[in-house]
Design goal:
Strands 2, 4, 5, 6, 9, 10 and 11 form a 7-stranded mixed beta sheet that branches. Strands 1-3-8-7 form a 4-stranded antiparallel beta sheet, with no helix packed on it. A hairpin with a 5-residue loop joins strand 5 and strand 6. The chain is globular and about 40 Å long. The chain has 121 residues and is mainly β. It contains no helices and 11 strands. 0% of the residues lie in helices and 51% in strands.
């Protein structure tokens, strides 16, 4: 079993930056898919970014060029660098992983508790 704990959220003004961290503990693997989802104020769950098993990264179009996802495998930590934040980025951000490793694809079966990001105009 792997546990995920997010940190780094907060309140910023539009144009500001935040760096989210996700600490993984328990059973961890370099071959986990890992990523970030967010739940918006209108309760929509959106995929934000991920790193596939082969290291390939992907981004939702609205954050591409502004957000960067990365991993520090030695420290079992996932990051999301968020630059030029917009009010539309306001959401609860969740670190996710396929901790069960039950499929060849990324099955987002393991979620952290979330960290709130609020961007004001």
């Amino acid at each position: 079993e792997v546990q995920l704990v997010e940190s780094g959220g907060g309140s910023v003004q539009a144009g500001g930056s935040l760096r989210l961290s996700c600490a993984a503990s328990g059973y961890t693997s370099r071959r986990f898919c890992m990523g970030w989802f967010r739940r918006t104020p209108d309760n929509q769950r959106e995929w934000v970014a991920d790193i596939k098993r082969d290291g390939t990264t992907g981004y939702q179009y609205s954050v591409e060029g502004r957000f960067t996802i990365s991993k520090d495998n030695a420290r079992n930590t996932l990051f999301l660098q968020m630059n030029n934040l917009k009010p539309e980025d306001t959401a609860m951000y969740y670190c996710v992983a396929d901790g069960l490793n039950s499929t060849p694809w990324c099955e987002w079966d393991t979620w952290g508790q979330g960290t709130q990001v609020t961007v004001s105009s």
